[in-house]
Amino acid sequence: PEVPGFGLVAVRGTTAKADIFADAQLWGAAFLFQVLRFFLPAGDVFTPILHQVIMFVTLLETKNIEKVSYYKELTKFTEYLEEFKNATDIHLTGHSLGGGLALISAAQTKHIAVGLSAPNAKLSRGTFDPPFTIDDLNNFTFNIVPNRDPVARMDDLADLFQRIECTADANKFFSCHLAGRSMCEIMYTCGSGIRPAFCLCTETYKYPEPLPRDGVNMTWSEVCKNF
């Protein structure tokens, strides 16, 4: 049923080469300094000033970054919903690049965002227009981080996040970035309520078949085959 004042904005993830370019442009500086911090002796002592260094580096690439600043359109759309559609309780969500954009716009507009395998924004917070604070990220954003997912480890995590397991083979860590696998892990770990699990959970990702309910005479394989 329709909920007065509620709005849900879903942002698609990376599906094309141009999206990969956008990821690299928006989060490349943060990722580079994360790597440098890891290899430098006592690298963590530089964390408090890294966001300022990243701001300076990003200024040199302003024109290129402007071309991939999709978050600005998302922020404008969120503000439009609030101003003209009377949506006061807006939630944003997305996977991968879409999740990263959702986290940025949520911090800018002070609405709630849930990202799945999303790049973060703690170190790069000052590079966005308008910039936002760590408190904005801590109060309004939540990221689901699969183990061994490289994208969800870009930039530093804010306070609210949840790590989940990844069932992919150890040498296939990019498989840990797949939204379907992560959704199956969430459903099998937390439960799915009255909703059945996805067929791809058992057919593609090899999760165990759910037990049939009372009165159901079909096996799970038969259900997936017929529906």
From TrEMBL:
Pfam families linked to this entry: Lipase_3
Domain Fungal lipase-type residues, every copy: 9-152
Superkingdom of origin organism: Eukaryota
Biological process terms in GO annotation: lipid metabolic process
Name of the protein: Fungal lipase-type domain-containing protein
